[in-house]
Amino acid sequence: MFCMSEPGRRSRTPSAEVERELLSAAEAVLVRDGPGGLTVRAVAAEAGIAPMGVYNRLGGKDGLVDALLIKGFDRLRAAIESPDDPDVRTRLRDGGLRYREFALANPHFYAIMFEDAIPREHESAEVEEHARACFGALVRAVEMASAAGVIAAPDPLEAAQQIWSAVHGAVALELRGLVLTEDPAATYDAFLDTMIRGLAPR
Q1: CA distance 79 to 145
Q2: Where are the strands (E) in 20-117, listed by range?
């Protein structure tokens, strides 16, 4: 509940709102300046607050990075979780397409999520929880495709890890400009078909 402020004084911004503003500022700095530009001072300036506010609200740079990682993994999870398409092969394949779309649209997010673009000594348990939930979306897609006979995956976790390894490798090459074919999108599209055929029951 909001309290009436004294005449001539600004009401204090609720804590949750300040944290949202800081996270929004951190994302803006990351997108504009890349991982190397993500500093407490830059985020504080973007948000229009004193640098100490970043430490008070999020625990400094590590807290900022953790919050961005959580947002990134949640967005990727939402991207790869296909709608309720009755065709489980399409759901699995479309998840792969959206993985690439996310990476290409959010290269700096992808860099801090998977390329250690901002080295840290420890990853928080909360970040790990969101990362595992993201991977869990792929595992569920594999389980459904296996149950429908689209792929052979007696161990869905193992199959999901193999799929992620292949998809991540293809996307990482493209992000580095190392896809040598004329149409990277068409190459990736064909790669997904090849991968799914390779997992088909024999």
Answers
A1: 18
A2: none
User: What span, in angstroms and rounded, lies between the C-alpha atoms of 176 and 198?
Assistant: 26
The mean-pLDDT minimum among 23-27, 109-113, 119-123 falls in 119-123
**Between vectors from CA 79 to CA 76 and to CA 83, what angle results, nearest 5°?**
145
Burial class (CB in 10 A: 0-12, 13-18, 19+), 131: buried
Each residue of 136-189: pLDDT tens digit?
Answer: 999 999 999 999 999 999 999 999 999 999 999 999 999 999 999 999 999 999
The span from the CA of 34 to the CA of 107, in Å, is: 9
Measured CA to CA, the distance from residue 180 to residue 141 in angstroms comes to: 30
Number of other residues whose CB lies within 10 A of the CB of residue 7: 5
- Which two structure tokens, joined as six digits, stand for 141? 């897609």
Region of 30 on the Ramachandran plot (φ > 0 left; ψ -120 to 50 alpha; else beta): alpha
Q: Could you tell me which residues come within 8 angstroms of residue 171 by beta carbon, excluding any fewer than 6 positions away? A: 99, 100, 103, 104, 110, 188
- Going from the C-alpha of 45 to that of each of 12, 53, 186, 202, the distances in angstroms are 19, 11, 42, 59
pTM of the model: 0.85
